Structure formats: C-alpha cells, structure tokens
C-alpha cells in the first residue's frame, strides 16, 4: 500500500513547479495526484489568478480524471514545496459530491504513513 502513496507523492512533486504564466496568472504552486479505482493516476496543478477565477490542484486533477472517462477515485495527495498539505474546503466538497462515502483517503504523512478518510474531514455533511 505504501508504494502507491509514494508513487502518487512523487508524481505530485514532479508537477509542483511554481511559475508566473502572465502578470495575472501564477501556476503550479500546489500540485495533486488522484488514484482511481481503475488504478490510474491523474495529476493537476493549481492556477492562481487575479479576480479569484483560478483552480486548485485537486480539482484540476479530478477534472482530468473526469475528462478521461473515470469518476471513481479512492486516494488523493496534494503538495506545496514538496510538503504534503490537506485539501481546501472547496476541494473536499467536490470530492464529497463525487464520492459520498468513506472510501476516499487523503494522505497526511508518508513517514510515518498517515491517511484520513474524507468523511472524517467533512463531518455532518449537508447531503
């Protein structure tokens, strides 16, 4: 089990290249990797913009997963500067709406390996 988490972390770190795209867009300060039930990995990067129209890395990775015809995922990791970070509330909400049960794990630490179930991060979910 630890190998898949390490692989996901490595893929996310590889995409974690912060860069200025234009005077209004900064991309890649956060990256994420999603593992699907079909054993595929999808990555995404954050897109920070003026006027708050950007996108988080986790939602970007989930969008790539959906674009590729998949909708069942079970693992998510996000990184910033190589450090594992938890998903924001908006990302958690999208994950809950896509998978409204306790199968999704969020990586918190690689060494030691610590994960949290998504539903533990979203107690008393509205739906």
Give a description of the structure.
By secondary structure, the protein is an alpha+beta fold. Helices cover 31% and strands 35% of the residues. Strands 1, 2, 3, 4, 5, 6 and 7 form a 7-stranded mixed beta sheet that branches. It is globular, with a radius of gyration of 14 Å.
Supply Rg.
Answer: 14 Å
- The backbone outline, from C-alpha atoms, is globular
Work out the helicity level: 25-40%
Reported for the largest beta sheet, the result is: 7 strands, mixed
Low-confidence stretches: none
Q: With helices defined by DSSP (H or I, 4 residues minimum), what is the helix count?
A: 4
Structural class call reads alpha+beta
Distance between the termini: 31 Å
Mean pLDDT: 94
- Please report the total strand number as a whole number: 7
Order of helices and strands: HEEEHEEHEEH
Fraction in beta strands: 35-45%
Index terms:
single chain, 127 residues, alpha+beta, 7-stranded mixed β-sheet, 7 strands
Set down the secondary structure blueprint.
Layout: H1 2-15, E1 19-20, E2 25-36, E3 41-49, H2 57-67, E4 73-80, E5 83-85, H3 89-98, E6 105-110, E7 113-117, H4 118-121
Parallel strand pairs: 4-6
Antiparallel strand pairs: 1-2, 2-3, 2-4, 4-5, 6-7
Brief summary:
With 127 residues, the chain is α+β, with helices and mostly antiparallel strands. The chain has four helices and seven strands; from the N terminus they run αβββαββαββα.
């Amino acid at each position: 089990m630890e190998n898949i988490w390490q692989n996901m972390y490595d893929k996310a770190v590889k995409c974690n290249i912060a860069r200025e795209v234009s005077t209004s867009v900064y991309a890649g300060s956060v990256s994420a990797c999603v593992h699907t039930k079909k054993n595929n990995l999808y990555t995404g990067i954050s897109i920070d913009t003026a006027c708050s129209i950007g996108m988080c890395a986790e939602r970007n990775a989930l969008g790539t997963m959906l674009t590729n015809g998949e909708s069942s995922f079970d693992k998510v990791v996000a990184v910033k500067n190589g450090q594992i970070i938890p998903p924001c509330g908006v990302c958690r909400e999208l994950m809950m709406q896509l998978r409204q049960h306790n199968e999704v794990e969020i990586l918190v630490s690689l060494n030691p390996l610590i994960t949290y179930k998504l539903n533990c991060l979203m107690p008393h979910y509205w739906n």
